[in-house]
Amino acid sequence: MTLHDVALQQPLFRVESLTKRYGHRIGCADVNFELWPGEVLGIVGESGSGKSTLLGCLAGHLRVEEGRIFYQGRDTLLMPEPERRVLSRTEWAFVHQNPRDGLRMGVSAGGNVGERLMAIGARNYGDIRETATDWLGRVEIASERIDDRPRQFSGGMQQRLQIARNLVTSPRLVFMDEPTGGLDVSVQARLLDLLRGLVRDMGLSVIIVTHDLAVARLLADRLMVMKDGRVIEQGLTDQVLDDPQAAYTQLLVSSVLQV
Amino acid sequence: MTEQSYNFAYLDEATKRMIRRALLKGLAIPGYQVPFASREMPMPYGWGTGGVQVTAACLIPEDTLKVIDQGADDTTNAVSIRKFFERTAQVRTTETTTEATVIQTRHRIPEVPLAEGQILVYQVPIPEPLRFLEPRESETRRMHALEEYGLMHVKLYEDIARHGAIATSYAYPVKVEGRYVMDPSPIPKFDNPKLGGNAAIQLFGAGREQRIYALPPYTQVVSLDFEDHPFEPSKAEHACDLCGSEVSYLDEVIVDDQGNRMFVCSDTNYCTTRQGEGHTGRLSQKGEAA
Questions:
Q1: Mind listing the pLDDT tens digit for each residue in B201-218?
Q2: Which residue of B151, B161, B226 is in closest CB contact with A108?
Q3: DSSP E strands, chain B
Q4: Which residues of B fall within a CB distance of 8 Å from A115?
Q5: ipTM summary value
Q6: String of DSSP letters for A189-217
Q7: Which of these, A94, A137, A90, lies nearest to A117 by C-alpha position?
Q8: How far is B148 from chain A (nearest CA, A)?
Q9: What is the pLDDT of residue B289?
Q10: I need a labelling partner for B1 at 20 to 30 A (CA). Which of A73, A201, A215, B14 fits?
Q11: What's the distance, CA B102 to chain centroid?
Q12: Angle formed at CA B61 by CA B58 and CA B63, multiple of 5 degrees
C-alpha cells in the first residue's frame, strides 16, 4: 500500500459530536460526519435550523465549545491561530451567500482574485495578472473587465467573482453558504453548472449549505438534513430526497413545488 | 502664569516616563506600533502633537534641537515647535542638520546623512499602513500579529492596474527586519532608502492615534514592491535652481501667472549650505527670483 492509498483511506474532514450554544439556546448540537476527498456534502434545512452556524463552526469563524474537528487528521480546534489562518487561505475557501461579504468592493476584480495569491507570497505582477485573467475566464467574466470594481458587476457576476477569488489557490475544501441565494433562476442555473464543472475538474471537497433542495440535488453527493440544530437524517442525496425517512424530511421534500 | 511653572520640556516627568517606556518597547520591536497615553498638547491634532511628545520625552538640557517641516526650517509648523521648546526647555536650537542632536521632522528626512547619536523624530498622522484597506482596528492588529500582509500588495497591485506603475509616492509602505509592515509617515518615497541602515535613532509619534513606533540604528528596512515592478525612489527630473544640486529632493514652485516654475531643494538647510559653498543654479544670477 502506497502513501497515496493511505491518504485516500482517510477522510479529509471529520467532525465528532460538535456542539455550539448561544447562551441557553442551541446553535447546533451533537453533529457527526465525515467528508471524503472529492465529495460534496449538502446541508439542508429550514431557516434557523443551525445550518449556517454549523458551517461557521467548521470554517473556524465561530468558537466551538464542545466536539472535535479534524482536517487531514489534525484537530483544527487545537491548532494555533496562525496555522488555522494559513489553512483558511490556502487549502480552504469560503463562499459567502452575499458576495459583498466575500469580496473587497473597493478593489478591482483582478485585485480581488490576486489577493489570496499575494497573501501566500506571489510577488510577480505579471504572473498574478495572468492567473487572475485565466480565472476570470473560467468563471465566465470577460477579461477586459479585470480592472472594474465589483460594484459595477451584476449580482451573478459578483458571485462568480467571489468563487474565482476563492478557488485561485486551488483549495481542497470549500465551504459554501447558500451560494445561489438571491439570484434569479436562470443565473442560478448557470452558476450551478459552473460550480459543478469546477468541483469535478479540481476534485474539490465541498460542504454546501442551502435551503434549496434543487441545488442540493444537483451538486451534493450526500445530504444532511437539520432541524432545531440537530441532524435528523443523512444519506446519499437521491436516497434522502426520493425516500425520506424522518417526518420533517418528508415535509421538506413535499413542500417543493413541482413545476 | 509664568513660563517657569512648566516642567522642563512642558510635559510632567510621569508622562515622559510613560512615553520613554513606549519608546523603549518600540525600539525593542522595530516597526511595532506601541500604544501610549497621548496627552493634550497646546496645539491642534495634525500639527505634530505626537512628534512633540516624543521630542519632549527625549530632550535633555544639553540637546540641540532642529525642527523641519516638509524639509524647511522656516515654515509655521517648524518655527512654532522650535519656539515652543526654546521657551519650555531652554534648549539650544539650530537649523544645521549636523549640529543637531534631536531633529523633529514633518514629512522629510534631511539630505545630509545622519550620524550616530542623533535622534530623528517623525510626526505621524496615520500610523496604520493597512488603515485604508481594512478599517477595523481589531482586524489590522490581528493582521500584524499573524503577518497577514497580502492586503498591502493588493494596494500596490491596484496602483499598477490603474496607473501602469506603483503610483504611491509618499507614505510608501516598508517592511522592517522582515517582520512588521510599517508606515514611514508621509515622507516622499525618495526618502525611503534612507530609513534602512540609518546611523541615527528614528522615532515615530502619532498623537491623535496614540501610537509610537521606532527604528533603532542600522535597521533593515525594505520598501514593498513586485519583482517586475521594483521600488523606485523618484524625484523631479531637474537640478535645484538655486544651488544646482541634482541629487536632492525638489519642490516645484510656480513663480508667476504665466505658469513659469522653478525647482528648489525642499531641504532648506542643505540648499543654503551649498549656496554658501559657492554652488549655483539656473536662477542664481537673477537674484531673488522666487
A1: 999 999 999 999 999 999
A2: B161
A3: 34-35, 64-69, 92-93, 102-106, 119-123, 174-176, 180-182, 201-206, 211-215, 221-223, 250-254, 261-265
A4: 150-151, 154
A5: 0.84
A6: HHHHHHHHHHHHHHT-EEEEE-S-HHHHH
A7: A90
A8: 7
A9: 44
A10: B14
A11: 13
A12: 65
Give the predicted TM-score (pTM) of the model: 0.84
Which chain B residue shows the shortest CA-CA distance from A127? B228
Residues 6+ apart with CB under 8 A from A171: A90, A91, A92, A93, A204
Q: How confident is the model at residue A232 (pLDDT cuts 50, 70, 90)?
A: very high
User: Are B146 and A82 in contact (CB < 8 Å)?
Assistant: yes
Write out chain A residues lying below 8 Å of B225, CB-based.
123
Does the beta-carbon distance from A147 to B161 stay under 8 Å? yes
Query: CB–CB of A114 and B157 under 8 A?
Result: yes
Domains of chain A, start order: 1-10+37-91+171-259 (3.40.50.300), 104-169 (no CATH)
Catalytic residue IDs of B: 31, 240, 243, 265, 271
Given this model, what pLDDT does residue A180 score?
87
Parallel/antiparallel/unpaired status of strands B201-206 and B211-215: antiparallel
B64-74 pLDDT tens trace: 999 999 999 99
Amino acid at residue number B15: T
